[in-house]
């Protein structure tokens, strides 16, 4: 297994996002991605999920609207313990030099320090968390580029 710290920087190639801060959280079951303006639109009888990633004050924010018909809805327990329905998407994440599949629930994380949370479902069997460390993937990437 690969050692990962309490925080790291990840890339989301599908959304052209590079070096985005992620919190590693073994207390969270799933992974979450900060989104806003999340709405369902109908197009030719199909539901299309439309959303924006990051906040306008984030340095990587580009005011892009992303659209997908490949989404689901799940009931998840939020950080404050409430059950809520969220949209989920599958995408690729680039971490430690590898692209991997990940499922994100889309939620408003603007009050959180990190726009991405990586939970146990993603971490399990692949990563050992050392809470004294951070940005291990990002540091390794700089030395190998």
UniProtKB/TrEMBL annotation:
Note the InterPro entries from the entry.
Asp_endopeptidase, Peptidase_aspartic_dom_sf
Question: Gene3D superfamilies this protein is in?
Answer: Acid Proteases
| Domain Retropepsin-like aspartic endopeptidase residues, every copy | 4-139
What's one Pfam family here?
A: Zn_protease
What is this protein identified as?
Answer: RimK/LysX family protein
């Amino acid at each position: 297994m690969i050692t990962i710290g309490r925080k790291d920087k990840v890339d989301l190639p599908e959304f052209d996002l590079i070096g985005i801060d992620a919190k590693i959280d073994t207390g969270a079951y799933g992974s979450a991605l900060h989104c806003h303006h999340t709405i369902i639109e109908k197009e030719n009888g199909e539901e299309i999920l439309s959303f924006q990633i990051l906040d306008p004050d984030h340095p990587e924010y580009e005011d892009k609207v992303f659209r997908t018909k490949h989404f689901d809805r799940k009931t998840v327990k939020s950080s404050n313990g409430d059950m809520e329905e969220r949209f989920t998407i599958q995408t690729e994440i680039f971490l430690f030099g590898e692209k991997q599949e990940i499922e994100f629930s889309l939620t408003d994380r603007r009050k959180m320090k990190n726009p991405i949370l990586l939970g146990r479902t993603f971490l399990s069997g692949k990563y050992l968390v050392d809470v004294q460390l951070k940005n291990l993937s990002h540091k390794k990437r700089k030395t190998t580029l």
